[in-house]
Amino acid sequence: GFCTNLLLSQTPEHILAQTNNKTEILCELKKEHTGLYWYRWSQEKQIFEFLIFSNALGKTTYGANISQDKFSVHRASPHNSYRLHIGHLHASDNGIYYCSVSQSSQLFLGSGTQISVVDVLPLSSKTTQAPVSKKPLRCITKCKAVSKKGTAWGCLRLPCKRGLLI
What is the number of structural domains in the chain? Predict the structure, then answer.
């Protein structure tokens, strides 16, 4: 089975990268292991694909049809950290990337990094969020007589609407 746990810390959570550029993912191990695996979940192909394994001595083993020119792993400081470098990015590289260690016949996964490759980067990373309206918030309370003599009043507060005069 696959498990996520506190053995691994993976960053960043999301990467938006431009076609033909490169990127990297950092994975920090909480304790020594014999090596680190990297996998990719492809939503499009619906497959969990083995990319690369790097042992503690820096020797790497690549998955089937995985380009050594595209993927490489480098040990980083502190020495329990690994960086997956991905070059020549294309839409086929879209997916969620996981670093992983094997322990007691189980595969422990990092939290995952979603990579989205686009031809043109947006002007601002905030353009993906809905703009916050600067218009004033206007609310209304409607009141009416609730007794036949008009001496008692009941009020109803209607939902507030941004930028609309009610």
Answer: 1
